[in-house]
Design a protein that fits this description.
alpha+beta, YbaK protein, Rossmann fold, 3 domains, 9-stranded mixed sheet, 14 helices, 30% strand, binds magnesium ion
């Protein structure tokens, strides 16, 4: 490939786009790779398309190596299959829904589980046809609440989605492993740093699931890892509950006046300074969070969750506890309807009797953190203004309707598998592998005949790679104050040849070297613009970020050209006749 900048559809910009906050977004727009068409929706320009094609090619090759076959579905899909699996509703506001002229419902696909399941059902009927893994590289549509950072979180984006079909669970585990291995090859070839973390299957349903996160300060995912090898998305950490202890001999519960102590800090210092409870800390108290939970039928009800007072609720963990429902902190209207909830003084017990709970006085569902085990002792509000109860023992003084593991994970918390203290870091999800199991096959009735002629439901996996998100991640990890610095595997061209001078000889030599490089199998971008100064050409070369730059300029007088390494900045002269061999 030889692209000539004299005719290439490209305009580089000196100014950052107003809406861009992160480096990758600014640079991809300034360097003329993408243009915004609407919030979270981007147009691909020639250089951007070249990068995208190279990323897609690597994904395609590794899918093929893993035995997956490529197909291509429409993005515009009918409602029915999504109605059958429940995702038409479950997807909520994130789904782009539309109607045709006959008022029939359609959607723009956010992923394609339903369609792949139906396609296999359509054509296959025997265990002999399986295992099978199919994939596509295709546009996905999600009406994200907060499209962000250019390609990082788009409303239209490219995903590689693959789906495996097996008769047995052992087969599924093998197919899953093959995809997982392929992902490792893809991200290694792309030069992307990644961590594989345990994930929650979330709205997709199913069991085992892992995410590939690329560590980055601009990442929206928080993950934890221990020195001993445990790694999980913060949403997926299930904390290990301490052992229950004996109730016997624990001091009796007592309610004390604690005036003006609506915060945890205030209760703790009041108890230490005025009540002689010197060993009480925030971790000895229970913080009672009132949540408004709206289920699929739009029924809104309150749930109170108790967590240790030294922690906050982690909203992403709460979403998993209440999967399928909308969760938000209760608002003023909710509290107005429930005057029995005394803000700042909510607790499980009132006047010595259980107060929170579906069967208790308040009738409000009451869930507790897994650390609240039988025999554990706590400080909590007494459900009357300016009062708290001390030495409340779980299993003796109060009970709960269930457990809710939604408190934040803190650095230093023990890893659930005993592999040491956890550290927290941020990352960007670049891939996701799921063992879906039979959820979709059951809903859509995908069955095959097994060896004994009996119909069995197929078990499935689904595997996604964020192709366009990866381009943003690569741009974010590979730039400097001058511009982009593409890894060789994805650069829009292998070599950027710059004709830096006015003389015909400069242009002729640049053109000749470019063709020679091309003949050696290199893709070349040639800056042959006539009325552009060398200075501007150099700064454009830095902005565009092709890793190797060949400068044909003044040195020609002594038979030399310059090879400039964009990443290291190193620039050295070589004899013209050796340049092609050096670069090819
Ligand atoms: P996120 O948690 O970031 O919203 P997700 O878990 O909803 O992502 P999946 O359904 O697992 O995403 O999709 C597979 C892959 O597609 C993700 O790992 C990610 O790389 C990519 N992806 C998902 N949503 C977007 C988006 N809005 N823009 C760009 N890429 C995306
Ligand atoms: Mg995911």
């Amino acid at each position: 490939m030889l692209l000539k900048m004299s005719s290439l559809f490209l305009r580089t910009l000196r100014e950052d786009p107003a809406e861009a906050e992160v480096a990758s977004h600014k640079l991809l727009v300034r360097a003329g790779y993408i243009r915004r068409a609407a919030p979270g929706i981007y147009t691909w320009l020639p250089l951007g398309l070249a990068v995208k094609a190279r990323v897609e090619q690597i994904v395609r090759e590794e899918m093929s190596n893993a035995g997956a076959q490529e197909v291509f579905f429409p993005a515009l899909l009918p409602r029915e299959p999504f109605e059958v699996t429940g995702r038409w509703t479950e997807y909520g506001d994130n789904l782009f829904r539309l109607q045709d002229r006959k008022k029939a419902d359609y959607l723009l696909a956010p992923t394609h589980e339903e369609m792949f399941t139906l396609l296999v059902k359509d054509l296959y009927s025997s265990y002999k046809d399986l295992p099978l893994t199919l994939f596509q590289i295709q546009n996905k549509y999600r009406d994200e609440a907060r499209p962000r950072a250019g390609l990082l979180r788009g409303r239209e984006f490219v995903m590689k989605d693959a789906y495996s079909f097996d008769v047995t669970h052992e087969g599924l585990v093998k197919s899953y492993q093959a995809q997982r291995d392929a992902y490792e090859s893809i991200f290694t070839r792309l030069g992307l740093e990644y961590v594989i973390v345990k994930a929650d299957a979330g709205a997709m349903g199913g069991s085992a699931s892992e995410e590939f996160l690329s560590p980055s300060p601009i990442g929206e995912d928080t993950f934890v890892r221990s020195a001993g090898g445990y790694a999980a998305n913060v949403e997926a950490v299930t904390i290990s509950a301490p052992a229950a202890s004996s109730i016997e001999g624990k001091p009796v519960a007592e309610t004390k006046s604690t005036p003006g102590t609506t915060s945890i800090d205030a209760v703790v210092s009041f108890a230490q300074e005025n009540l002689g409870f010197t060993d009480i800390t925030a971790a000895s108290t229970l913080k009672h969070i009132v949540l408004a939970v709206t289920d699929v039928n739009k029924k809104r009800s309150l749930v109170v969750v108790a967590i240790p007072g030294d922690r906050e609720m982690e909203p992403k963990r709460a979403e998993i506890v209440f999967a399928g429902c909308d969760v938000e902190p209760a608002g003023d209207e909710d509290f107005a309807k429930h005057p029995e909830l005394v803000k700042g003084y909510i607790g499980p017990v009132k006047d010595g009797k259980q107060f929170l709970g579906e069967k208790a006085e308040s009738k409000i569902k009451y869930l507790v953190d897994p650390r609240v085990v039988v025999g554990s002792s706590w400080v909590a509000g007494a459900n009357t203004k300016d009062n708290h109860t001390f030495n409340l023992v779980f299993g003796r003084d109060f009970d709960a309707d269930g457990v809710a593991d939604l408190a934040e994970i803190k650095a230093g918390d023990p890893a659930p598998d005993g592999s040491g203290p956890l550290e927290l870091a941020r990352g960007i999800e670049i891939g996701h592998v799921f063992q879906l199991g039979k959820k979709y096959a059951e809903a859509l009735d995908l069955k095959v005949l097994d060896e004994n002629g009996k119909l069995v439901t197929v078990t499935m996996g689904s595997y996604g790679v964020g192709v366009t998100r990866i381009i943003a991640v690569l741009a974010e990890a590979n730039n400097d104050d001058k511009g982009l610095i593409w890894p060789e595997a994805v650069a829009p061209a292998d070599i950027h040849v710059v004709a830096a001078g006015k003389e015909d000889e400069v242009y002729e030599t640049a053109e000749r070297l470019a063709s020679e490089l091309q003949a050696k199998g290199k893709s070349v971008l040639l800056d042959d613009r006539l009325k552009v100064s060398p200075g501007v050409k150099f700064s454009d070369a830095e902005l565009l970020g092709i890793p190797k730059i060949l400068i044909v300029g003044r040195g020609l007088a002594t038979g030399e050209v310059d090879i400039w390494d964009r990443r290291s900045g190193e620039r050295r002269s070589v004899k013209v006749e050796l340049a092609v061999a050096e670069l090819a």
